[in-house]
Amino acid sequence: MYTYQYPHPAVTADCLVFARTEEGMKLLLIQRKNEPCKGKWAFPGGFMDIDETTIDAARRELKEETGLEVGELFRVGVFDAVNRDPRERIITVAYYTVLDKPAEVSGLDDAAQARWFLLTELPELAFDHREILREAERVTRLALS
């Protein structure tokens, strides 16, 4: 056990899963079951375990919250605004993937529900997820919004 003079931030990983449809691009969101932001929609994601990488955490959280397993993930970026989460100092690493079509999903673990939304009809997003989505659009060069 280590003891440090200075507090350390927590690390999370988020997963943006896009899917092509005839109606347009869709995004997978989960409805938060717990505070903070209970009832709001967010990307599947959560805290990194001490023995995993952020990409492993993103994959694990996606499966735990939606039942979905995906192939290759690509990094959107690191998001470290000081007050991005009211619980504590949290830094997140966001990843994305694009599916050929929406897959079957369910709200599991701490997700009240999981649903695909057209990018033109997104609900209010929790935390700084709107900002992360804008960065994903820039990074992927997809017409996401």
TrEMBL record:
Residue ranges constituting the Nudix hydrolase domain according to the UniProt record: 8-141
Transmembrane regions: none
SUPFAM superfamilies on file: Nudix (SSF55811)
Keyword ATP-binding: no
Any one Gene Ontology molecular-function term assigned to this protein's record: hydrolase activity
Name of the protein in its database record: NUDIX hydrolase
One Pfam assignment: NUDIX
Keywords recorded for this protein, A-Z: Hydrolase
Family affiliation: Belongs to the Nudix hydrolase family.
InterPro entries membership: Nudix_hydrolase, NUDIX_hydrolase-like_dom_sf, NUDIX_hydrolase_CS, NUDIX_hydrolase_dom
